[in-house]
Amino acid sequence: MNKLFDIIFMGTPDFAVPALKELSKSGHKVSLVVTQPDRPKGRGRKIQPPPVKQAALALGHDVSQPKSVRDAAFLEHLAEIRPDMIVVIAYGQILPKPLLDLPRFGCVNIHGSLLPKYRGPAPIQRTVINGEAETGVTAMQMDEGLDTGDILLAARTPILSEDTAGTLHDRLAEMGAALLLETLDRIETGRIHPVPQDPALATYAPLLRKTDGHIDWSLDAAAIDRLVRGMDPWPGTYAFMGDKRLKIFKVRTVPGPPPASRKAPGTVLASFSGELRVAAGKDALSILELQGASGKRLVAQDFLRGCPILPGTMLT
User: Fold this and answer.
1) Which range, of 11-25, 39-53, 214-228, 301-315, averages the lowest pLDDT?
2) Distances (CA, A) of 297 to 50, 252, 287
3) Which CATH superfamily, name and number, covers 210-306?
4) Domain coordinates of the chain in residue numbers?
């Protein structure tokens, strides 16, 4: 019979929840779940627990929410548990060396990219925005660097033409849960062979800001399409029509006008009734779903019925 580990699980957002659920069913002991403190969210700014806390309490696990993982009392509490391993998935703080050295089998992280590419906080969104053909999840033995530890295992998936950051997030979260259990099984049975990352191949996926969603119409239509999908569901993409902000949710690349009648990027083009077609740096975009400043998300035909946009209008 394989050895069952005594594990401390550290994670915060929805991405970590499938792994926690699978780990809880695996037979391994989850002695403690560590997550970020409750914080205000949404328009009402109500204090809400992170998704991992909600899942952990529903599963019957003890939960700790330190403001800092460097807190002496917190580190002492973890030392008293004497875990075999700490599993970390999108926790949100860099672990100090005393914490990394605490478990007998170290700290294992599940990261949402094929390391060493896309280290950092926004790997899923950036792979879509940058037009990668595939991505995946990596199980890594953590060290003091940012996503720099030895690779234990990885799983791959193609990025489909209709994938958004949201659909890819959900697929990778499930893949990460399965990869975690496979990694634990291989560690248990001595069938794991850590491979150092090649720093020459490393890239970084910086945190997204809301301003990153402002569409630059001079880009190729295909690049704008990737941006819209990569910023969905957060932080979203937008453009301005005069002083009015339009949220852009879904687009499709279409052929642009012939060279003789090419329009400046951002120009609304003549098209069939109910379509909103906009010139890009190359080709054009049909905006399929959008929202005005005070309205709701609508398909283009319904939006234009209430707010006509004439050919020649500039979006910026």
Assistant:
1) 39-53
2) 27, 17, 12
3) Formyl transferase, C-terminal domain (3.10.25.10)
4) 6-201, 210-306
Task: For domain 6-201, give the CATH number.
Answer: 3.40.50.170
Q: Which of 90, 149, 157, 163 is nearest to 122 (CA)?
A: 90
pLDDT at 2 over 60: no
Calpha distance 269→287 (Å, rounded) = 11
Cβ-count burial 147-174 (b if 16+ within 10 Å, e if not): bbbbbbbbbeeebeeebbbbbbbebbbe
Buried b (16+ CB within 10 A) or exposed e, 53-86: bebbeeeebebbbbeebeeeebbeebeebebbbb
Residue whose pair of structure tokens reads 């970020």 in the numeric block: 36
Distance between CA atoms of 84 and 86, rounded to whole angstroms?
7
CA–CA distances in Å: residue 44 to residues 233, 245, 247? 19, 22, 21
